[in-house]
Design brief:
Shape: elongated
Number of domains: 1
Distance between the termini: 84 Å
Structural class: mainly alpha
Order of helices and strands: HHHEEHHHH
Radius of gyration: 25 Å
Strand content: 5-15%
Number of strands: 2
Helix content: 40-55%
Number of helices: 7
Largest sheet: 2 strands, antiparallel
Length: 160
């Protein structure tokens, strides 16, 4: 025999009352722990500078896509230069980040992630050149004109 609609409503009200009382008895939730950065050094000023007025090097070489600039953290392996890829861990901001448009960074048909070495080979830059580009670009910080000159110089090298 099934309960009448009135009985079902009364049973739901009793259950709601019981669950509220139980929730009050529970220990309060602790605030969420901040995400571990695994020793990652952040540089918000450098990231902001990358977003401001620099061009996407892939757009200069492969053709423009017209999307906004994002900071692309480079996870490349080059033991000679002290670069070691750590899966699941984004590298430090300073000296390991390049400006790429959204399309070339992560959304387009030719994008950087996850096989970055293959992407840079398609663009025409070796892993060593990308590492040098990261270092030269960080050396040009915070002069946007100097940063743009660095990007254009490496784009010319890739096209040659």
């Amino acid at each position: 025999m099934s309960p009448t609609p009135k009985q079902a409503a009364e049973a739901r009200a009793v259950l709601r009352s019981f669950n509220r009382a139980r929730a009050k008895d529970r220990a309060p939730r602790l605030p969420a722990k901040p995400k571990a950065t695994h020793g990652r050094e952040r540089d918000p000023a450098y990231l902001a500078w990358l977003h401001e007025g620099l061009s996407c090097i892939a757009c200069l070489i492969l053709g423009p896509t017209g999307t906004r600039i994002e900071a692309a953290h480079q996870k490349l392996n080059c033991a000679d230069r002290g670069w070691h890829k750590k899966l699941g861990i984004r590298p430090t901001d300073a000296g390991r980040t390049l400006p790429l448009c959204r399309s070339h960074h992560r959304e387009g048909p030719v994008c950087c992630d996850p096989a970055q070495a293959k992407f840079w080979a398609l663009v025409g830059l070796s892993v060593e050149q990308v590492i040098d580009l990261c270092g030269d670009l960080y050396g040009a910080f915070p002069d946007a004109a100097a940063g743009e000159a660095v990007i254009r110089r490496y784009a010319r090298e890739a096209r040659a």
